[in-house]
Amino acid sequence: QVQLAESGGGLVQAGGSLTLSCAASGRTWSNFKMGWYRQAPEKERELVAAISWSGGATDYADSVKGRFTISRDNAKDTVYLRMNSLKPEDTAIYYCNAVHKVIPSLNYWGPGTQVTVSS
Questions:
Q1: Coil, strand or helix: which one is 88?
Q2: pLDDT value of position 59
Q3: Cβ neighbours of 22 (radius 10 Å)
Q4: Which of 59, 83, 86, 94 has the least C-beta neighbours within 10 A?
């Protein structure tokens, strides 16, 4: 069974840090681009950060550049999102995503993890 499982969400004060993890299982994950998306109440889901299979290419939303870092450990089939200097506007449900770089129909989502930043 293909599965993406996020963990590490929670409640943190503004200025604090959290690290999210996404454990992928159920298939071979080579050639998959991994990403973190978020969705705040009454807002559309947006890309936060993405990383290539090799880890050599990353992409960030302007709103998180310099504060968030995406990384992956292919030996563990896990992708991470380190979030520093958190702001109340970072409050959202964070979703892990995996999409094949050649076959985009191979597209998987995790159930999400809540991140709440208090002011």
A1: helix
A2: 97
A3: 25
A4: 59
Percent of the chain with pLDDT over 70: 100
pLDDT of residue 70: 97
The 10s digit of each residue's pLDDT in 13-32 is 999 999 999 999 988 888 99
Beta strand 58-60 with 107-109: parallel, antiparallel or unpaired? unpaired
Q: Is 91 helix (H, G, I), strand (E, B) or coil?
A: coil
DSSP per-residue letters across 22-65 = EEEESS--TTEEEEEEEE-TTS--EEEEEE-SSS--EEE-TTTT
pLDDT at 29: 87
Residue listed under structure tokens 């159920």: 26
**Looking at the DSSP assignment, which residues form a beta bridge with residue 56?**
none
The phi and psi torsions of 76 (rounded to 5 degrees) equal: -105, 0
